[in-house]
Amino acid sequence: MSERHTTRDLTREFLTYIQVEKGLSRNTLQNYERDVRRLQVWASGKGTQIERLQRKDLREWIASMSREGLAPSSIARAVSAARSFFKFLMLDRHVRRDPTEDIHTPQKSSRLPKFLTEEEMERLLRAPDINSDVGVRDRAMLELMYAAGLRVSELCGLKVADVDLDGAIVSCFGKGSKQRRIPIGKSAVHWLQRYIAVRDRLGSNNPVLFLNRGRALTRQLAWSIIKAHAAKAEVPNISPHTLRHSFGTHLMQHGADSRSVQALLGHSDISTTEIYTHITDLHMRKAYDRFHPRAKVQNRGR
């Protein structure tokens, strides 16, 4: 990478380049400049130069714009400007790889889903009182939802037999009764082991994994439990899908490829269906172990 130019010089050269090469209008050029400057300021706040940003940095930048409440159309435009900027840098050999590859933006018709930061997620996970059986159950619930990106309905439908702790795999049925097998990390396995050790005291004659007074946990009760712990942890704006969205977002922020994340989440669109035929269980396991922030955490106590 060349050190002959400052970040400011590269940005100016880029704007000159697109003005000459593309013959853009003044208004479009101003939009490009505003969006690239936005990224430049964000990079500076991270203590780095814009040309040194990596794919995971750009995903974090996109997520930060979403959390600020920017419209999907504004985010998409900013990402488009970043793509053009890095293509210019590659053309002039200031960078060797394009970090905007495999970067996707939200559809213009909807906002990016709400998710927690990793620090907020840690606070939520630590909210249950693990000195009680119910608290251990709740901690196991939260850990599993975050570890596997489960919907609340999928969590409540799990049976004891659906969890393979030795293989660290959970089998669940999602929308359309489609089954998927999801790898889980050491932290989730640890808390599930602790919960199963006390589960009989909550009711042992039921095949469903998570129980309340001997009965299967309902979606409404599970959601109220999550909200209560979120309030205790002072985690704002939580929704039934927040842990699922956090799962996907954090994987992407840590560099996981979008295809593996889509497969892990069990999305049912055409591209995801095609992905199922190409991504092996081993591929997904490697992506999960490498990129999930708690995949290799072995908790002891709190």
Question: How do the strands and helices of this protein lay out in sequence?
Answer:
Elements: H1 7-22, H2 26-45, H3 55-67, H4 72-91, H5 118-125, H6 133-148, H7 152-157, E1 163-164, E2 169-173, E3 179-183, H8 186-198, E4 211-212, E5 215-216, H9 219-232, H10 242-253, H11 258-265, H12 270-276, H13 281-291
Antiparallel strand pairs: 1-2, 2-3, 4-5
Helix pairs in contact: 1-2, 2-4, 6-8, 6-10, 10-11, 11-12, 11-13
Any overview of this molecule?
With 302 residues, this protein is mainly alpha-helical. The chain has two domains: 7-91, DNA polymerase, domain 1 (Orthogonal Bundle), CATH 1.10.150; 118-291, Intergrase catalytic core (hpI Integrase, Chain A), CATH 1.10.443.10. It contains 13 helices and five strands. The protein has helices at residues 7-22, 26-45, 55-67, 72-91, 118-125, 133-148, 152-157, 186-198, 219-232, 242-253, 258-265, 270-276, 281-291, and strands spanning 163-164, 169-173, 179-183, 211-212, 215-216. The protein has a three-stranded antiparallel beta sheet. A hairpin with a 5-residue loop joins β2 and β3. α1 (7-22) runs antiparallel to α2 (26-45) and α6 packs antiparallel against α8. The longest helix has 20 residues, at 26-45. The radius of gyration is 22 Å and the shape is elongated.
